[in-house]
Amino acid sequence: MSARPWRRLLGVGLMTFLIAIFLTFPLQSVAARSPLYIAIPLLVLVILVGVLFDIVGVAVAVAEESPLHAMAAKRLPGARQALRLTRNADRVSNFCNDVVGDIAGTLSGALGAAVAVNMLLAAGKGTPLLEMVTNTGLLALVAAGTVVGKALGKTYAMTRAVDVTLRAGQVLSWFEYVLHREFLGNGPRRRRGENGR
Prior knowledge:
Blueprint (H helix, E strand, L loop, with lengths): L2 H31 L2 H27 L2 H9 L5 H9 L1 H35 L4 H32 L1 H19 L18
Helix pairs in contact: 1-2, 1-5, 2-5, 2-6, 2-7, 3-4, 4-7, 5-6
């Protein structure tokens, strides 16, 4: 493996490490100290973010370019950005599915443990057995919810890949407008008929 892929892998690993550190501690603290009506929606939000990015990563990998070319020709907002997403499908999928997905999984586990502690404190009970049962049960519920959400999301992403990719392109277009910066540049064109499957 050449030096460039190694640098890219190390960069992705370092970015994931730093994001996980900077997000886990504050969110876990909030979940542990906030009322359950705040902590539980926060946990659900983190799970949904992981599922949403998983949907985008899958959709970009399988979306055909030809419908997006037609949309770009009609100057449909976000179509140019959607094309860039498909042409950089490997990088986009890696970021959405691996970086964000793994961070969301780690965060949801940490938040689940914090919510379990919060629930025990709210109940005024904290025997070792009850702590173990509550923590295990909540983490199992988080894992099940994540798996079911991602399974449903993958099905949706594969059947509506172009629509999802266009929506992601529209979001990217908004960020580019606000930040005055073009993301991803012009990636290599995929061969006709290649859709990442």
